[in-house]
Design a protein that fits this description.
The protein is of the alpha/beta class. 39% of the residues lie in helices and 17% in strands. α1 packs across α6.
């Protein structure tokens, strides 16, 4: 893979909790022609960008073992790099369920960097809390819970390889209009006209990833035509964005509470685009807020 000649640098920041597969991802990117650099201090990253162009993209691994690492500094670094006209930046976050991380640390008998004298479970909990703000800022989110290293390498190749579809990474997101429209969306579709599962007591505590909620939304007589037109529109537009040289496209789906309708539609659209050969990541902002410790319920009292 070659860097865009109009830019000095193409940079992928690779982060996520320890044990989620960062080293595997860096090695996969190196195999694809990236210059891999792991655990560079955050304060040195701007100096790296100020240096002469390397002629190939850079994969930069960052985690809690980095000297001077903290979430605030990393977010500030991402903001600074995003504004740099010399640079094309993408943030890759490798996620993993805590139970699987505990299993991986138990197998390797490694100490967790945030709890060297305690159980790995404590360090994993601390690290997930520390990285929560960065996870929300990621351009690409890959859940490695059920993936082998081979699976992760294949996923990285789909996202960052040189094939025509992989030149455009698609992010499908759900959100609540009550909390405002997320920044950075290229397209927004309002799902509030669809039948609302919130008004069904049995469905209210569930979310749009549940088959029962999906069936309720799909039962709306307007759904089939809406979804077919939407799918066909997106499959028509994505190659046009590739031709224009766009590297990332964010598509948002909103409803009142961000729990039912927008989540169900985002899941279905993401599946349809993936079946069409496009690398797709799915984000559900309000569900992530609920899952983050200390965050209020985003859908409490709202028609989701």
């Amino acid at each position: 893979m070659t860097a865009d000649p109009s830019l000095d640098h193409k940079l992928v920041l690779v982060t996520g909790p320890s044990g989620a597969g960062r080293s595997t991802a860096i090695h996969a990117l190196e195999d694809m022609g990236y210059e891999g650099i792991d655990n560079i201090p955050l304060s040195l990253v701007p100096r790296l960008i100020d240096g002469p162009p390397l002629g190939r993209p850079i994969a930069l691994g960052l985690d809690v073992r980095n000297r001077d690492f903290n979430a605030t500094s990393l977010i500030e670094l991402i903001d600074t790099l995003t504004r740099d006209p010399r640079l094309a930046l993408e943030v890759l976050y490798l996620d993993c369920a805590p139970g699987e991380l505990i299993r991986r640390f138990s197998e390797t008998r490694r100490r967790h960097p945030l709890a060297p004298d305690d159980s790995p479970a404590l360090g994993i909990e601390r690290e997930i809390d520390l990285l929560a703000p960065i996870r929300v800022r990621a351009d690409h989110l890959i859940d490695t819970t059920d993936q082998s290293p081979h699976d992760l390498k294949a996923e990285i190749a789909r996202w960052f390889g040189a094939g025509p579809a992989s030149r455009l990474a698609v992010s499908v997101q759900s959100f609540s209009y009550k909390r405002g429209v997320p920044r950075g969306l290229d397209m927004i579709f309002d799902c509030r006209f669809l039948a609302n599962p919130h008004w069904s007591p049995a469905l209210r505590p569930l979310d749009g990833r549940d088959a029962r909620v999906e069936s309720h939304v799909r039962a709306d007589p307007r759904f089939d035509e809406f979804f077919l037109r939407l799918r066909d529109l997106l499959l028509f537009l994505l190659p046009a964005h590739v031709d224009e040289g766009k590297a990332h496209l964010s598509i948002g789906f909103g409803c009142t509470g961000g729990q039912h309708r927008s989540v169900a539609v985002a899941e279905l659209v993401g599946k349809a685009l993936a079946e069409g050969g496009w690398p797709v990541s799915k984000r559900h902002r309000e569900l992530e807020r609920k899952a983050t410790a200390g965050q209020p319920d985003a859908t409490k009292g709202a028609g989701a």
